[in-house]
Specification:
Chain lengths: ~120, ~120
């Protein structure tokens, strides 16, 4: 089956620190990969995505590269801000025949950035 | 543009009562999804619709849960009778039909449900 494994949190960093949140996946074929972010009291928002091997998704200073050889999609940011404090979810959609749209989510990683 | 709108934002009710959660998807989106989020189980897909038709309801926990989509701009998730273990945040999301399965899902702000 399909699954996503994220590094366990919570993660606490100081402002301007480097961030890495690890994500690995198991899926048949070549899934599309996503990072969603959830701010307190809100729904999930798409942060970035990559649809094929070696693609790099980027948004708001965050980046993640689709690594087929290691089945990974790690999220990185060079300098985090207090406003980045949120829960981050890695997710995949398996691309196969048909129009299945089910996102499979990881368990989420809570990030807290201290001033 | 208006996003996905869910109501109510918060619901507190007693066990055994019927609960109805509502969702208005983004106009023009063909897919609608209902998720449940808990600390123990994370985010779970309950059911999703395409063009108002339920496609996969395998995530619906039991017969007490039902979902409908009478038209393209409205969906409900009903729990009857409710139980304390149904307490969770319920999210609705929608996405476009065109452009393939990579289309992002847009989430509402959720309904926080507490069953006493």
């Amino acid at each position: 089956g399909n699954s996503v494994t994220q590094m366990e949190g919570p993660v606490t960093l100081s402002e301007e620190a480097f961030l890495t949140i690890n994500c690995t996946y198991t899926a048949t074929g070549y899934p599309s990969l996503f990072w969603y972010v959830q701010y307190p009291g809100e729904g999930l928002q798409l942060l970035l995505k990559a649809t094929k091997a070696d693609d790099k998704g980027s948004n708001k200073g965050f980046e993640a590269t689709y690594r087929k050889e290691t089945t990974s999609f790690h999220l990185e940011k060079g300098s985090v801000q207090v406003s980045d404090s949120a829960v981050y979810f890695c997710a995949l959609i398996p691309i196969s025949s048909g129009s299945a749209r089910q996102l499979t989510f990881g368990s989420g990683t809570q990030l807290t950035v201290l001033p | 543009d208006a996003g996905v709108i869910q109501s109510p934002r918060h619901e507190v009710t007693e066990m055994g009562q019927e609960v109805t959660l509502r969702c208005k998807p983004i106009s023009g989106h063909d897919y609608l999804f209902w998720y449940r989020q808990t600390m123990m189980r994370g985010l779970e897909l309950l059911i999703y619709f395409n063009n108002n038709v339920p496609i996969d309801d395998s995530g619906m926990p039991e017969d007490r849960f039902s979902a409908k989509m009478p038209n393209a701009s409205f969906s409900t998730l009903k729990i009857q009778p409710s139980e304390p273990r149904d307490s969770a945040v319920y999210f609705c999301a929608s996405s476009r039909g065109t452009g393939g399965p990579n289309q992002p899902q847009h989430f509402g702000d959720g309904t926080r449900l507490s069953i006493l």
